[in-house]
Design a protein that fits this description.
about 190 residues, alpha+beta, Glutaredoxin, Glutathione S-transferase Yfyf (Class Pi), Chain A, domain 2, 2 domains, 5-stranded mixed β-sheet, binds glutathione, transferase activity, Thioredoxin-like_sf, Glutathione_S-Trfase_N, transferase
Length: about 190
């Protein structure tokens, strides 16, 4: 398998999840500004959408969109999924929320935007983080079980903190708990992040 990624981007969730799943994978860095990969390939030709992540499976099939990439990894390693009769639905539900409501709200920070637009985005993100904070009553989004959704939320909490967005205290604890894990520390180091 190969994950196309950019350091610190949402693709970090895929790297953490692949390592958590014990899946051996190659990682190829994409320069998002030039759309050239570290091997000198034209990423726009590989993935015409131009963004990361993209996961290329061993049979050559490719999976794009972070929710699909993470759902695929959770299918390979069910321990990274929530438990219970509605487990699959709960995973779709939270990944959709994280992608559309939280990740989408960061847009003004990553694209041309005024300070007013960024401040409004910060308010929106803070409100959505407060909602997520209520879901964390025992370690992770789904109790004691670390899932691919936690990897995604962790990646976005890094952004929120870097942009000075207000993060609820229990989410800061949650972030630090995840950041302390050996796999996450290794994943951050592999992307040149400390
Ligand atoms: N809808 C995509 C969005 C992914 C996305 O926004 N990726 C960012 C990094 S976090 C990116 O590659 N941005 C560069 C670009 O859009 O040109 C998904 O959920 O996977």
């Amino acid at each position: 398998m190969k994950l196309y990624y950019a350091p610190g981007a949402c693709s970090l969730a895929g790297r953490i999840s692949l390592h958590e799943a014990g899946i051996l994978a190659d990682f190829e860095k994409v320069d998002l500004a030039t759309k050239v990969t570290e091997n000198g390939d034209d990423y726009a030709a590989i993935n015409p959408r131009g963004y990361v992540p993209m996961l290329v499976l061993d049979d050559g099939e490719s999976v794009t969109e972070n929710t699909a990439v993470l759902a695929y990894i959770a299918e390979c390693e069910p321990a990274l999924s929530p438990e219970g009769p509605l487990a699959r639905i709960r995973l779709i539900e939270i990944l959709t929320y994280l992608s559309t409501e939280l990740h989408g709200a960061f847009k003004p920070y990553f694209h041309e935007a005024s300070e007013t637009e960024k401040a409004a985005a910060g308010e929106t993100i803070a409100g959505r983080l407060r909602f997520l904070a209520e879901q964390i009553d025992d370690h992770y989004l789904f109790g004691r079980r670390f899932t691919v959704a936690d990897a995604y939320l962790f990646a976005m909490l890094r952004w929120a903190m870097a942009f000075g967005v207000q993060v609820p205290a229990n989410l800061v604890d949650y972030f630090e708990r995840i950041a302390a894990s050996e796999i996450v520390r290794r994943s951050l180091a592999e992307e040149g992040l400390t």
